[in-house]
Amino acid sequence: MVIVMGPEATPDDLTSIVSVVQAAGVETFVSKGVRRTIVGLVGDVTQLDAAGLRGMPGVRDVMRVTTPYKLVSRENHPERSTVHVGGVPIGPGTVTLIAGPCAVETHQLTLEAARMAQSAGAVLLRGGAFKPRTSPYAFQGLGEAGLRILADVREETGLPIVTEVVNAQDVELVASYADMLQVGTRNAQNFSLLQAVGAAGRPVMLKRGMNATIEEWLMAAEYIAQRGNLDIVLCERGIRTFETATRNTLDISAVPVAQRLSHLPVIVDPSHSGGRRDLVLPLTRAAVAVGADGMIVDVHPHPEQALCDGPQALVDADLGELAQVMTDLPVLLGKSPAAAVAA
C-alpha cells in the first residue's frame, strides 16, 4: 500500500500520517519527488482504514500496489515523471543529451570534452572521477581530484555534472560536488550503495545491471526510492548475451517496457552498449525513435590517448551528426531537445 500526499501537504500533515500508520505496527518509507511525496507501507496493512487515511489532511490518495516495486510503479504514479538536474529536465516531454569523457583525466581534456558536448547539444556533462574497472590494473579514476576538475569545468561551461559513485562511504563526498549521482552497471545490485544514494538528496541515474532483468532493475530503483528519493533516471546500457560482435547487447525493447511499468524517465547509453564509435550514432537514432527520454554519450578530444574506453568515444567529426540527430528526431515524436527547454 502507498499513501500519496498532495502538493499542499504540510510537514505536520506528513508527520500525522506516519504516526497513525506506525501506531498500527506498519513500517513507513517516505519518498519525495519534485511534485509529490509518497509514503510506502510495509507490513500487515489489513488493520489500516484506507477510507480514514484518505480523509486525513494532505492526503491525495491511498492505493494498494500489486507490483513488488511499489514506489516506482505506474500503478502508484500513472503519469510519467520528469527529473530535474541542475534545472535541466529529463522526462517524457524532452530528449536530454548527457555527454563527456568516460573518465576525468586532466582539467584541459575535460574542458575540451565539455565544449565538444555542448556543441552537440548536451546540457549535462558526464565524467567519471571514480572508475570501477574489470581489471584491477586499469585506470581507476582520480578520485576527489577528478571531482574538483568537474566542479571547475561546471563553473566554466555552466553544465551540471553527472558522475559515478562506487562505494557507500563515498556518497557524501561525491554528492558534495555532483548535481546527479550515477550508479553503474557493476553496482546495480549493491544494495547498501543504493540505499546510501537514496538518502543523499541528489537525483540518481541508475544503470541497468549487465545481467539484470527489467524487474531486477526496477527493484534496484525501489531501494533508492525507499530511502526517500523519487528523482531517479533509469539508464539502459546494454546487457550481457552470447553475442560478441558488440561490447554489450543494447536491449532497445527495455525502453518502452520500463516506461510502461515505471513512471521514472528512461535513457539509453549507446556508447557502452555498442562499444565502438561507428555504432554510437545508429544506436542513438534507434533510442530516440523508440521513445527514450535521453542519451548518455562518450566524447573525447583525443580518444586514441584516452585512459578509459577511447574506442567508443565520439570525436569532433561526429558531433555535427549527433547534433542533427538530437535536434531533428525528437520533434518527430512530439518531444523537444532538452537544450531548447533549458535555454
UniProtKB/TrEMBL annotation:
Residues 1-66 form the DAHP synthase ferredoxin-like domain. GO terms for biological process: aromatic amino acid family biosynthetic process. InterPro entries: Aldolase_TIM, Class-I_DAHP_synthase, DAHP1/KDSA, DAHP_snth_FXD, DAHP_syn_2. One of its GO terms (molecular function) is 3-deoxy-7-phosphoheptulonate synthase activity. It comes from the Bacteria. Residues 87-329 form the DAHP synthetase I/KDSA domain. SUPFAM superfamilies: Aldolase. This is 3-deoxy-7-phosphoheptulonate synthase. It comes from Nonomuraea longispora. The lineage of its organism: Bacteria, Bacillati, Actinomycetota, Actinomycetes, Streptosporangiales.
